[in-house]
Amino acid sequence: MSNLFDLLVAGLATGAIYALVAVGFTLLWQTSQTINFAQGEFVMLPAFLMLAAMHAGAPFWLAIILGILLSMILLGLAFKMLLVDPMMRHGVLPLAIATMALAIGIKEAVKQFFSAEASPFPSIVPTGDVSILGHAVSLQSIGVLVVAILAVFGLTTLLNRTSLGHQMQAAAQNPTVARIIGVPVERMILLTFLINAFLVALASLLITPIYLAKFSSGEVLGQAAFIAAIVGGFNQVRGAIAGGLLIGVLDNLAAAYVSTQYRAAVPMIFLIAVILFRPQGLLGRAEERTV
Amino acid sequence: MSGFARPLKIALGLIVVAGLIVIPMNFNRYGLFILSQWAVMTIAAMGLNLTLGYAGQVSLAQGAFVGIGAYASAIMTTHGWPLPAAIAAAIVLAFAVGWVLGYPALRVQHHYLAFVTLAFSTLAFLVFRNESWLTGGIYGISNIPRPHILGIATNKPLPFYYICLGSLAIVSLAVWWLIRSPWGRAFMALRENPLRAQSLGIDTRRYTLMAFAIGSALGGVAGALYAPLTQYIDPVPFNLSLSLDLLMMVIVGGAGFYFGPFLGAMIAVLLPEWLRFTEGYYLMLYAIAVMGLLIWSPTGILGILDRYMAARRTKAASALRAVAKSRLETAQ
User: Fold this and answer.
1) Distant-in-sequence, close-in-space partners of B242: CB < 8 Å, separation ≥ 6
2) Tens of pLDDT along A162-173?
3) Cα separations (Å) of A274 from A230, A247, B104?
4) How far is B168 from chain A (nearest CA, A)?
């Protein structure tokens, strides 16, 4: 039983990170029909920005702030203005392909300008274990969970409790009507891109100490977040959170109880089943959009 | 006007084909390998173009079908079967699996379909990697023989390049015929307006499955040629990124245009090679080129040409109209 408990905690911790990435993914989809195939690379890049800042002599806390700011400029503002805006009106597919190319570009740029080797990354949480209910739980898992929960809580509060959040939701659900009642739709879309950039930078900060900083680490992560978003419900923030946690736990349990060789198959089979029997996702609404 | 354009087009086509036959004769080994790879990838991309460009069904699994074809061909030819038999088996196998994969397309569309096929792609990769009794696992299958055609050994790069080119020609003609047949029209009807297609009596269910199965079968053909081309296969080339690359080829070339896959494969296979002089930067430049192209023309390279031709045709038509109008006025 103690094994199961450990697996659950570890699964929830990775799942919480998946959830952060998946939430950003669904936000982009909702406001601009962007399927961002570079989302995994978006998580990989901020860690390298932070590492670069530290190499330039900045202390860790300053590097974190610089890394998050730079991510918001590059992965939020520049991504939207240079790639998404010119392509948005041409439909989902060309833009999705362009983000695939962007993923290649980011990977290669990191490989070329930084390193092809994995680099260690400092953790914001001290290493060590604490005892909970007689089980040793690593502080890192707890730290990841706490930060992720706070971020998600902050985001849902913003979306559901503030005027700004309501405007964002209106802009996502019905841009035309939102524009008529005076919501600055363009600014709201930009805001979701900035929030996505912030979330991926945060995810990067949480996951890189565990898996090291490597140019190729975005591939697996992007796919996991992708699956989490669909399983939970492509058009629901809370769906993405549930999906992320579920995939994280499922992945860890599959590794232990199914087989290490086929652990990656379990979320995939789950994904196919969800799409076939409940295409709107576990928590999602049936989609009314026709695109 | 079109009567004048037609011989011109045929002449241009003949020049390109002659060029593809004659020019590579003094290419080195590597150049021939890259060109053969272009031919093979074009076949796979043509299959995807049929599924996506003509029938409008998004698939992120074409790479998996190339893998299925490659493994079928590698396993059979290393056990002494001739390559044509292996190609036939690859076609049948990929067609059958493609047919089954088409079933989700009857239920879900667009991005959901993309995700189902994406998941399938990952599952296929896991099978290639883990079922080592069949596929050799991570060690793969080596010493894949190249065929003897009409008593001529194709171990040298040039004869095998001609096999790839010949296969491409056969596939091209078959696809050309298919998209002009009632089937091709039914595929396009499926893409443009499935509801209306159904009300016109087109069995949309059957044609959706067909679009998947035929597109996948062409992926199988490409794979069956890929195995003897590289003479060694392991699971890595058939992971998700091959499916994404093939999708990129189709979109960049121009989805739904007959010549789209040829150009798309050229860009995806040859452009990185031409950019190699930039050393570590070549894939970065390639990515930037693809993004730039898509921003400029989301319908791909042939989309640019198409728009230009359409603009010229409207211009010509309005010029004719103006002439006719002035004639009418002078007559009055």
Assistant:
1) B62, B63, B66, B67
2) 999 999 888 888
3) 8, 12, 11
4) 25
Per-residue pLDDT at B152 exceeds 50 = yes
Chain B residue closest to A267 (CA)?
Answer: B119
Q: Say if CB A43 and CB A222 are below 8 A apart.
A: yes
Q: Residue A291 — very low, low, confident or very high, per pLDDT cuts 50/70/90?
A: very low
Q: Determine the Cα–Cα distance for residues A264 and A251; give it in Å rounded to an integer.
A: 7
Determine the Cα–Cα distance for residues B289 and A233; give it in Å rounded to an integer.
34
Q: What is the DSSP letter of A233?
A: -
B211 HSE (CA, 13 A, CB side): 32
Burial class (CB in 10 A: 0-12, 13-18, 19+), B109: middle
Residue A67 in contact with residue A53, Cβ under 8 Å? yes
Backbone φ and ψ for A200, nearest 5 degrees, come out as: -70, -35
Torsional sign, CA A89, A91, A92, A97: negative
Residues 260-279 of A with CB under 8 A from B: 261-262, 264-265, 268-269, 271-272, 275-276, 279
- Which residues on A lie below 8 Å from B287 (Cβ)? 101-102, 104-105, 108
> In this structure, what is the dihedral angle of CA atoms B275, B169, B58, A268, given to the nearest 10 degrees?
-80
Look-up of token digits 């002494």: B80
Tens of pLDDT, residue by residue over A20-56, are 999 999 899 888 888 899 999 999 999 999 999 999 9
Cα–Cα distance list, B96 to B210, B217, B226, B332 (Å): 10, 8, 20, 68
The rounded distance, in Å, linking the Cα atoms of A214 and A117 is 6
Worst-scoring range by mean pLDDT, A211-225, B133-147, B271-285? B271-285
Q: What is the 3-state secondary structure (H, E, C) of chain B?
A: CHHHHHHHHHHHHHHHHHHHHHHHHHCCHHHHHHHHHHHHHHHHHHHHHHHHHHCCCCCCCHHHHHHHHHHHHHHHHHCCCCHHHHHHHHHHHHHHHHHHHHHHHHHCCHHHHHHHHHHHHHHHHHHHHHCHHHHCHHHCECCCCCCEECCEECCCHHHHHHHHHHHHHHHHHHHHHHHHCHHHHHHHHHHHCHHHHHHCCCCHHHHHHHHHHHHHHHHHHHHHHHHHHHCCECCHHHCHHHHHHHHHHHHHHCCCCCCHHHHHHHHHHHHHHHHHHHHHHHHHHHHHHHHHHHHHCCCCHHHHHHHHHHHHHHHHHHHHHHHHHHHHHHHC
B145: left (phi over 0), alpha (psi -120 to 50) or beta: beta
- The alpha-carbon gap from A130 to the nearest alpha carbon of chain B, in Å, equals 37
> What integer pLDDT is reported at residue A81 of this predicted model?
93
Provide the CB-side half-sphere exposure for B245 (13 A, CA): 22
